[in-house]
Amino acid sequence: MISLQLLGTAWTVWNLARRRVGPVGALLVTAVVIGGLVYLRPRLGERFPALAGAVMHVERGEDAERGEVAPSG
């Protein structure tokens, strides 16, 4: 099943790319980005466990749940 984070990422990429390269180009860009995420995430997790832990930590929004969001500015 597709995760909500992946769907949200796909929607964001498509909307940003659609403004730059049109709907057909946006579809291609979105497919490449999401395909890359799906393909590379497990491999990066095997080689760099700390990176995988940081990526998964941010995706689940644990920082925001604990109130540890970095101040902007």
Question: What does this molecule look like?
Answer:
The protein is mainly alpha-helical. The protein has one domain. Helix content is 82%, strand content 0%. The chain is built from three helices and no strands. The chain has helices spanning 4-47, 49-59, 62-66. The radius of gyration is 15 Å and the shape is elongated. The chain crosses the membrane at residues 20-40.
List keywords for this structure.
single chain; 73 residues; mainly alpha; 3 helices; elongated
- Regions with pLDDT < 50 over 5+ consecutive residues? none
What's the overall geometry? Answer: elongated
Radius of gyration: 15 Å
**Assembly status:** single chain
- Termini separation (Å)? 38 Å
Compute the average pLDDT.
76
Strand residue content: under 5%
Number of helices: 3
Largest sheet: none
Name the helix and strand elements from N-terminus to C-terminus, one letter apiece: HHH
The helix-and-strand class reads mainly alpha
What's the β-strand tally? 0
Q: How many domains comprise the coordinates?
A: 1
> Percent helix among the residues?
over 70%
